[in-house]
TrEMBL record, chain A:
One of its GO terms (molecular function) is zinc ion binding. One of its GO terms (biological process) is protein ubiquitination. It catalyses: [E2 ubiquitin-conjugating enzyme]-S-ubiquitinyl-L-cysteine + [acceptor protein]-L-lysine = [E2 ubiquitin-conjugating enzyme]-L-cysteine + [acceptor protein]-N(6)-ubiquitinyl-L-lysine. Keywords: Metal-binding, Repeat, Transferase, Ubl conjugation pathway, Zinc, Zinc-finger. This is RBR-type E3 ubiquitin transferase. Residues 1-22 have a biased composition (Acidic residues).
UniProtKB/TrEMBL annotation, chain B:
The keyword Flavoprotein does not apply. Residues 1-151 form the UBC core domain. This is E2 ubiquitin-conjugating enzyme. It comes from Phialocephala subalpina. The lineage of its organism: Eukaryota, Fungi, Dikarya, Ascomycota, Pezizomycotina. GO terms for molecular function: ATP binding; ligase activity; ubiquitin conjugating enzyme activity.
Length: 513, 151
């Protein structure tokens, strides 16, 4: 933005900045992870001890951990029930890794359990390839002497080639592993890993075990794969489907991807999954109406010259007439830095204006667009903020060499960028959330929180767009660090309040959409 | 290897075809494309009709299931009422197909489907709806369509 920095701070904000202890320059705050809230230190103590209400307990598992978990369970069942490890593995998969239920059922009716799991009665010894005189393979119809064949304990015998090709088809083409049955029509016998090793090449064996690991995670209700592309980790979290109207379980993988354990979408706090689903569907259905919004250019409300938005900040200054306005509501920017700030709230017109159906539908569209605009704008701005950061980072490197600043000294920009990303992500979803809220005191409080966070984020975003030589200025650096920690703090307050109300079931939903 | 199995199956089907079914090759030089003529089962509204089907054995047969489509239009919840005549039938789903399954099993499964439609697994929703709610009207429509297309 090319305006002067004449942003007015609200008195409340100044207070906070004065009495917060400025330790946000510590290395701790430079991480890429979820920013630690930087509260005044009495509050900070509390936060460190208590879990924040909107935090979810979870554990990240790496591929090795996942394998080890399965092996441990298999070993246990192998010892307790005194059955082969291959069979223990099949039984566990059949019981979706519920060890207790498996052992209980097996103690009661071992025969039935084995049969149901595809481990019916034995007719032969340990798996081996055999040459049987007079054998004809029922799949390929070959009967040449010396043909090697294989049968599992069910006794259904096929030539080794056909068996191998069948397994290849199942594993490679169909991605099946845990539930591969005997090739015999109607036979439910499940193939075990030892038999597999006899019949296929080692790369297929590896693929098979990879797939088994997959099913292990997919079979467990409390486990999910990290949806980030190329990430092999899984997350364990105790949140059940039925809890999803009370909590928004955001989890963070070690790969840094933050996502919702409930629906696997990227972090959408504070909005609950159900609402997110509804909102996304609505946006998709109404995409035509809303399409123009993502446009990156608008006209100056005063002189009508075209203005392009190329940073995340919503404070626009017309190059031609120097008019300062808000990109979101096109209103005067001077009103935005004060307690008059009302950009986030949708003012419902009095009912008398909207009597006929047409007027009503216009009002409802306006209402939707108010929220959609802001939702889409924060998404867009987050991207633009990131672009700015990438550019700034490059310049910073040259600046570092010029000014002799150390790498650690310029990390405050990294922290600021990260705060902008997470806060805009949160702000984005506050608009979807607010769209579904009924008008009441609670909603007003929510909007006040939203307003505080939004104002702080826009202020930070604006500082962030300063030219590099200004950024290196010690005073601005302190301001950016303060604003960064203030943004993080406002975000925590908003999320905590919203989560508490959600957990207590006190939000009232609007019925006009 | 595939060739031997297919030839054997073909010989068996030609020698002892399942009741109500005739089989011949679309093109004598290609054992992968079979032409099937299926009689509408006696206890169904398709009785009296002769339905042509095309059965294609993929190169991976019998590790992959055959593909089969109605060439004759048929009014049935589980068969698309268009030029494709696609159908949805359990035995042909890759998770149910076993390499030891035989083509006559597939053909009898289709005959069974004509006798007992599975409306909950329908490809033609309107037809399924009618089958469930007004069996008489469904039978009538099926008989008329059989007369019209399957002569
Ligand atoms: Zn064979
Ligand atoms: Zn078997
Ligand atoms: Zn990950
Ligand atoms: Zn979710
Ligand atoms: Zn202007
Ligand atoms: Zn505004």
């Amino acid at each position: 933005m090319d305006s002067d920095d004449d942003f007015n701070m609200s008195s409340e904000e100044e207070d906070v900045l004065e009495d917060s202890d400025n330790d946000n320059g510590s290395v701790d705050d430079f991480g890429f992870d979820e920013p630690e809230p930087d509260l005044g230190y009495t509050q900070k103590e509390q936060v460190k001890k208590e879990k924040r209400t909107f935090d979810t307990n979870f554990k990240v598992y790496h591929p090795d951990d996942i394998q080890a978990q399965q092996d441990d369970l298999i070993d246990e069942v192998n010892m307790i029930l005194d059955i082969r490890k291959e069979d223990a593995a099949i039984l566990l998969r059949h019981f979706r890794w519920n060890k207790e239920r498996l052992i209980e059922d097996y103690m009661d009716r071992p025969k039935k359990v084995l049969e149901d799991a595809g481990l019916g009665p034995s007719t032969t010894g340990p798996p081996k390839l055999e040459v049987i005189p007079g054998f004809m393979c029922d799949i390929c119809c070959e009967d040449e002497p010396g043909l090697k064949s294989f049968a599992m304990k069910c006794g259904h015998r096929y030539c080794a080639d056909c068996y191998g090709q069948y397994l290849n088809q199942k594993i490679k083409e169909e991605g099946e592993a845990a539930r591969i049955q005997c090739p015999q029509d109607g036979c439910k016998r499940i193939l075990d890993a030892k038999s597999l090793d006899l019949l296929v090449t080692s790369d297929l064996q590896n693929r098979y075990h990879e797939l088994l690991t997959r099913t292990y995670v997919e079979d467990k209700e409390q486990m999910k794969w990290c949806p980030a592309p190329d990430c092999q980790n899984a997350i364990e979290c105790g949140i059940k489907k039925k809890d999803l109207d009370k909590v928004v379980p955001t989890v963070a993988c070690d790969c840094k991807h933050r996502f919702c354990f409930g629906c696997a979408l990227p972090d959408h706090q504070p909005a609950p999954c159900e609402l997110v689903k509804k909102w996304l569907k609505k946006c998709a259905d109404d995409s035509e109406t809303a399409n123009w919004i993502s446009a990156n250019t608008k006209e100056c409300p005063k002189c009508n010259s075209t203005i392009e938005k190329n940073g995340g900040c919503n404070h626009m200054t017309c190059r031609k007439c120097k008019h300062e306005f808000c990109w979101m509501c096109m209103g005067l920017w001077s009103e935005h830095g004060t307690s008059w700030y009302n950009c986030n709230r949708f003012e419902e017109k009095s009912g008398s204006e909207a009597r006929d159906a047409q007027a009503k539908s216009r009002v409802s569209l306006e209402r939707y667009l108010h929220y959609y605009n802001r939702y889409a704008n924060h998404e867009q701005s987050a991207k633009l903020d990131k672009d700015i950061f990438t550019k700034t980072e490059k310049k910073m490197i040259s600046l570092q060499t010029a000014s002799g600043m150390s790498w650690i000294e310029v990390q405050y920009l990294n922290s600021a960028s990260h705060a902008l990303q997470t806060c805009r992500q949160t702000l984005k979803w506050t608009y979807a959330f607010a769209f579904y809220l009924a008008r009441n005191n609670l909603t007003e409080m929510f909007e006040d929180n939203q307003k505080d966070l939004e104002m702080a984020v826009e202020a930070l975003s604006e500082m962030f767009e300063k030219p590099v030589d200004e950024l290196a200025n010690a005073k601005l650096k302190v301001e950016i660090m303060d604003k960064t920690s203030y943004c993080n703090k406002r975000r925590v307050i908003l999320l905590a309040d919203t989560a508490d109300n959600l957990a207590n079931g006190v939000w009232k939903w609007s019925n006009n959409n | 290897m595939t060739q031997k199995r297919i030839t054997k199956e073909l010989q068996e089907v030609l020698a002892t075809p399942p009741p109500g079914i005739k089989v011949n090759l679309v093109d004598e030089s290609n054992v992968h494309n079979w032409n099937i003529i299926m009689d509408g089962p006696a206890d169904s509204p398709y009785a009296g009709g002769k339905f042509q089907l095309l059965l294609v054995l993929p190169p991976e047969y019998p590790f992959k299931p055959p593909k089969i489509n109605f060439k004759t239009r048929i009014y049935h919840p589980n068969v698309t009422f268009d030029e494709h005549g696609s159908m949805c039938i359990g035995i042909l789903k890759s998770e149910a197909w076993k390499p030891s399954s035989r083509i006559p099993n597939v053909l009898t499964a289709i005959q069974q489907l004509l006798l007992e439609p599975v409306p909950d697994d329908a490809l033609e929703q309107a037809t399924a709806q009618k089958f469930k709610e007004d069996r008489k009207a469904y039978d009538k429509e099926a008989r008329e369509m059989t007369k019209k297309y399957a002569k």
